[in-house]
Amino acid sequence: MVETAIDNSLIKTFSSAREGTIDDIEVIVNIISSTFSNNHGVCWLLKHKGKNKKEIESLARYAYYKSLHSKGVYISANNKGVALCYKSNDSRFSFIEFYYQLKFVFTSINLLRLPSILKRENRRKKIRQNPNGYLYFWFLGVLPEGKGAGFELKNAVLSRARDENLVVYLETSNERNKNIYERLGFSTYHYWEDKKADIIFWFLKWEPNDLKKNTNG
User: Smallest Cα–Cα separation from 41: which of 68, 6, 66, 69?
Assistant: First the structure.
């Protein structure tokens, strides 16, 4: 749905992230709200373009519950970074996720723009389609003092992808982030520019070795 926000600490080796729980929600909301308030790739869909903290907090809570439902919440060892991901083919219903999704839509999005937002999001989903399912790396946020947290969180997501033999997809509208992800083993497979919204998206993926062998063999 929205881009990741990372820094060069991703290329260093540090301790391990842990799986987040329901008790971590306020930490997660604070990190996402702090790291994405000025991020164009996130704020384009909000009523006030990121100038209203409650709108970002509403998005953060919805993203948290969607990822928690798919066991895709990770927090760095120093509690300064968070990663959210989910499985594309997880069709289990979660009432609390649905509640926060509705709350986000009706409190944080300009409803007059909702048709164009849904159209844009559906296009992005079609671009990243995979018949065998995939892991969508939705959010990665690290506070300025969270040196090394990004690398831990990236490792946690990719470790899950290896265990479940899933491709990892993500998008970013930041070219610097794209370059860092490529250094980490991701490859850019699509580029899309939405001139009307003044947003550029790079689509990246990472494949476990088993899937690479099958694809190349």
Answer: 6
